Amino acid sequence: MINPEADRVLITGAAGAIGTALRVGLRSHWRHLRLTDVRPLQDLAGNEEMVVADIADRAAVEGMMRDVRAVVHLAGVVGTYTLEDLFRVNARGLFDVLEAARLAAVERIVFASSNHAFGCYPITEKVSPDLPPRPDSLYGVFKAWGETMLRHYYDRYAIRSVSLRIGTFRPQPIDQRSLATWISPADIAHLVDVSLRHPDPGCLVVNGYSRNTRLKTIDPNWSTLGYRPNDDAEDFRDMLRAKGIDVDAPDRDEWEWPEHGGAFPRTPERPVR
Known about the structure:
The protein has helices at residues 17-26, 58-64, 83-103, 138-157, 178-181, 185-197, 222-225, 237-242; strands at 9-12, 33-37, 48-52, 70-73, 108-114, 160-166, 168-169, 182-183, 203-208. 31% of the residues lie in helices and 15% in strands.
């Protein structure tokens, strides 16, 4: 079990949206946080230290692993990216983080996977982490690959891990799909917290959503992990309706997108070169 009072936790991608939410949610009770990103952070608390580095810089990654007991790996490209960036950061960068963690005797890794690792399943099918991945994009493929890499590091080197298939992370739900896939800042911090504290998660894959009324997954491994989300996208239904979003169609089990991945499965992939 990772000790929040004594053990150092490294958070990669700490300047991003989820990294910011984790700092707010974790720094009051995790006493030793090491943060890294290509962008510097200016508002460090007394129990935070910053390492400005590119996750694709293997020497820098090895250096930041010193005296680290657990890693929360958020760094990765998303949205607008080139295939080269995807390989450099989400593939080689991930490998370098995992290998540097192994060499430094890190005991726990929490990995920001994505619901796009199973985004090609029909929205009418309630999915479970036990089902085979069905990625909806190259981005989702690399997330599924990361989960497989963590299985390798668990089976070969006994490094415990939790892969979080994170849904729509925003301060509030943004569209019809996020009525099912939203995860709030408070709930993502709680999810990472219990992923670090669990005495022995093995190699666990967990669906990362809030306690949404319209949740489209089953057996997301929340009870195994001890995750008890508080927020529900349903509370924002009137707000979304006022913005012209059709929030009533899901009452009839009608969704804007026919797959769990939303627009991703039907968006043309960038050319592979």
